[in-house]
Automatic annotation (TrEMBL):
<keyword id="KW-0472">Membrane</keyword>
<dbReference type="InterPro" id="IPR008733">
    <property type="entry name" value="PEX11"/>
</dbReference>
<protein>
    <submittedName>
        <fullName>Uncharacterized protein</fullName>
    </submittedName>
</protein>
<feature type="compositionally biased region" description="Low complexity">
    <location>
        <begin position="1"/>
        <end position="16"/>
    </location>
</feature>
<dbReference type="GO" id="GO:0005778">
    <property type="term" value="C:peroxisomal membrane"/>
</dbReference>
<dbReference type="GO" id="GO:0016559">
    <property type="term" value="P:peroxisome fission"/>
</dbReference>
<keyword id="KW-0962">Peroxisome biogenesis</keyword>
<keyword id="KW-0576">Peroxisome</keyword>
<feature type="region of interest" description="Disordered">
    <location>
        <begin position="220"/>
        <end position="259"/>
    </location>
</feature>
<feature type="region of interest" description="Disordered">
    <location>
        <begin position="1"/>
        <end position="28"/>
    </location>
</feature>
<dbReference type="Pfam" id="PF05648">
    <property type="entry name" value="PEX11"/>
</dbReference>
Length: 295
């Protein structure tokens, strides 16, 4: 039994060796055509775009950019069409039973995206409920922030169902009269305006707390020592004769940086990142503000 087992194992090993030594056939036309993506390297930008569009917020931002971007392009296309007709000698009303074909297509796309965004927001009340539960169990750092977020949550709890009922009734799904639909649209827009206005106050309070944290950090730890790269950059402009001395000083400075300085630098970096996030949110809400006034 042992001899037969060893012979069978040796034969299988030999067969496997023959299969490995067999030359790989060249790729066929079907392999090159269907497997053309083997020539494409992994792309980090594509991965980030997929992660961004996989979230509800990212998809809504992409749709919003397309929707309002098309509204900026439509007047340009319409004006271009009118100028072309005038130059051709046609002085009639250019938009009657015609107009710019591209402008009409973009207008239909903008309307379709607007419907899709409202439809996607029908379930938006669910994360609002979760958010209100979280802020009652994990309070914001100050009472003004807590009250702002409470009012924001209640405004969204009323806004989402009002907008959903107005949208569905506008498509003859719910039996709501046209005057009541207009009232629902009006009050939903007002509730959204309340949220946007309170978010600006929220950012003001966030900035106040950030400044307090910065002053407290300055009093307790001070500012971190410059990094070795900064020391080299400062020394590079003072002549080539002192370059070696500055490099040696930078090396000694790097060795003298202790854990406390590393922690201090990390704390200041966190404050800088928070400051940039507040500025970014400020620009976003300032962009929402004219839309809110328009609605």
């Amino acid at each position: 039994m042992s001899a037969s087992a060893s012979s069978s194992s040796s034969s299988s090993t030999a067969a496997a060796a023959r299969r490995r030594s067999r030359p790989v056939p060249p790729p066929t036309l079907a392999d090159r055509t269907l497997g053309c993506f083997s020539n494409v390297a992994p792309n980090e930008t594509l991965d980030r775009l997929i992660r961004f569009l996989s979230s509800w917020s990212g998809t809504d931002k992409a749709l919003m950019l397309t929707q309002y971007g098309s509204k900026l392009i439509i007047p340009i296309l319409t004006l271009q069409h009118a100028i072309r007709l005038r130059l051709a000698g046609n002085k009639g009303y250019h938009a009657y039973k015609g107009g710019s074909a591209n402008a009409r297509r973009l207008e239909k796309l903008s309307s379709l995206i607007g419907d899709a965004r409202v439809l996607f927001r029908i379930w938006g009340v669910l994360p609002m409920i979760k958010w209100m539960i979280d802020i009652e169990r994990h309070h914001p750092p100050t009472r003004p922030l807590h009250m702002i977020e409470r009012i924001q949550g209640w405004s969204m709890l009323l806004y989402c169902p009002m907008e959903a009922v107005a949208y569905l009734s506008g498509h003859s799904i719910l039996p709501v009269s046209t005057p009541n639909q207009n009232r629902l649209w009006l009050w939903s827009c007002r509730l959204w305006a309340v949220y946007v206005g309170l978010q600006l106050l929220h950012l003001v309070e966030d900035n106040r707390l950030l400044r307090l944290r910065a002053r407290a950090l300055e009093r307790s730890r001070g500012h971190p020592t410059p990094a070795p790269g900064e020391l080299q950059a400062r020394g590079s402009g003072k002549g080539k004769t002192n370059l070696s001395e500055k490099t040696g000083a930078a090396g000694e400075e790097e060795e003298d940086v202790n854990d406390e300085q590393a922690v201090t630098r990390r704390l200041w970096d966190d404050l800088d990142e928070r400051k940039q996030a507040i500025i970014s949110q400020l620009w976003v809400n300032l962009g929402y503000l004219p839309l809110t006034i328009h609605w």
